[in-house]
Amino acid sequence: MIEKKIEISMLYDFYNQLLTAKQRDMIDLYYNQDLSLGEIAQELQISRQAVYDTIKRTEKILYDYEKKLKLFGLFNSKIASIEKLKEKVLQLEEMIELDSSKKELKEEIKMMKSLFDELLNNSIL
Predict the structure, then answer these.
(1) pTM (2 decimals)?
(2) pLDDT tens across 40-69, in order?
(3) How many alpha carbons lie under 13 Å from residue 25 in its C-beta half-sphere?
(4) 42, CA 20 to 30 Å: which among 13, 33, 97, 117?
(5) How far is CA 93 from CA 3, 20, 101, 105, in A?
(6) Do the record's keywords include Transcription regulation (predicted)?
């Protein structure tokens, strides 16, 4: 359940401007402010079932946006590439401290350049 809450919150961060004000409010209240369906219904003066239906429909819309636009997936891919680069920099730093050969250092730098190229080539321009 926690994973879904995080996922919906992240999708909301990416796509909230594509939702109606009513959809934004309900998703924000439910997922980000952790209000119950009953509390949201009371605050918005609608039925609990209407809140539930709107939230479920909006979740589907958010997943559909991600399926088509893939912004969240691209973001996660970029984060993974940056983490790989950080790891490579740390490895390179360690190799320098251990007085590794120039050949080994050049190979690490070559791999880092490749990761940078991958990161830059997959960017949305």
Answers:
(1) 0.76
(2) 999 999 999 999 999 999 999 999 999 999
(3) 9
(4) 13
(5) 35, 50, 13, 10
(6) no
